[in-house]
Amino acid sequence: MTVLPPVGEIPLDQDEAEAAFAAILDGRVDDEATIAFLVALSDRGESASEIAGAAQAMRARMIGIAAPENAIDVCGTGGDGHHTLNVSTAVSLVVAACGVPVAKHGNRAASSKAGAADTLEALGLNLDRAVETAEETLADLGICFLFAGKHHPAMGRIMPIRRAIGRRTIFNLMGPLANPAGVQRQLVGIARPAYVPIYADALARLGTARSFVVSGDEGLDELSLAGGNEVADVHGGAILMHRIAPGDAGLATAPVDAIRGGDAAYNAAAFQALLDGQPGPYRDAVLFNAAAALMVAGDVTDWHEGVEEAAETIDKGLALGLLRCWIDALK
Q1: Alpha-carbon span 24 to 162, nearest angstrom
Q2: DSSP calls for 78-121
Q3: Which of 265, 263, 223, 266 is nearest to 246 (CA)?
């Protein structure tokens, strides 16, 4: 069995972290040692080099797909405890309907009541077929769903370990950094505002054309309508930190409770109402985050333009039409 390096005050460098997580993912470390290592990292706080190295190990073991060069992903780390409606999934559909290819990476619910996979399935999407034809639908329709369980088989042996730990570990941070389509543009939401610059540093180390790392002040893993948000604009190796509030995008503030979700059926009904043009905080949350994704994609230049394009796409029925085409294509 491989002996993991000790976790001290000085972080592991990127190569050391990659080697450690390669051993963990390959099953060359016993469970007890793995648990101790992950808990020690979490207690001390994971560094950018450790997050990047862990993600590299995960990327090296994933089952990838071919994707258009300009494809993006919209994904959160989850685990924020707010149990909101499926914002990033709705944003993915709206942005794809704007003409930007979206390789949506997601999973079933872990800490929430309905993950991206659960809600899409409740909307009528054949999830098994979506997984089988992801590369095809991304090429033909400009959207796909990359089910994490299929593309990251090495994570299968990690799930019992994560359940045994019963708390956040570095694995909560790795998913968005290991998109199977190898996207170079991302909108990533994380649940810890103070960690935005660290996570952005990890993303910069891994290489990106342009990405936003965002977190609501209340610990929401997406841009929040409730108040302020931390944003790291990662452009190549450069990172620019700034603050953004809903008013900066011409949107009203709203408490997190206003977009509180439920089970898959509940979230799917709200999703359908959104696509039918229903106004309200859920729509505004989607517009806010869609504007960020469109900026990352280079489709718009500012927040107001992004909100306007996303709203027009919903109101013209383009997002709903895309969902129907996607459902029909998988029958």
Answers
A1: 12
A2: ---S--B--HHHHHHHHHHHTT--EEEEE-S-SSSS--HHHHHH
A3: 223
Report whether 84 belongs to an annotated binding site.
yes
Structural Rg of the chain based on CA atoms: 19
CA distances from 283 to 134, 243, 298, 325 (A): 27, 21, 22, 22
CB neighbours of residue 154 within 10 Å: 18
Element (H, E) at 171: helix 171-174
Q: Check if the beta carbon of residue 12 is closer than 8 Å to that of residue 5.
A: yes
113 marked among binding-site residues: no
Q: Take residue 218 and report the two structure tokens written for it.
A: 């209340």
pTM score of the predicted model: 0.95
Provide the 8-state DSSP code for 4: P
- 112 annotated to a ligand binding site: yes
Q: Is 202 helix (H, G, I), strand (E, B) or coil?
A: helix
Backbone angles phi, psi at 239, to 5 degrees: -130, 125
Q: Which of these ranges, 88-102, 103-117, 218-232, 250-264, has the smallest mean pLDDT?
A: 103-117
Does 238 appear as a known binding residue?
no
92 a known binding residue? no
221 is annotated as contributing to ligand binding: yes
Short-list 190, 215, 216, 202, CA closest to 78: 190
CB 188 within 8 A of CB 234: no
**Residue 107 reports pLDDT greater than 80:** no
Task: Answer yes or no: is 111 a known binding residue.
Answer: yes
316 is in an annotated binding site: no
Region 281-300: mean pLDDT is 98
Question: Reduced to 3 states, what is the DSSP secondary structure of residue 279?
Answer: coil
Query: Any binding-site annotation on 76?
Result: yes
Asked if residue 111 has pLDDT above 80, the reply is no
Section 173-193 average pLDDT = 95
Cα angle, residue 230 at apex, residues 308 and 268 outer, rounded to 5°: 55
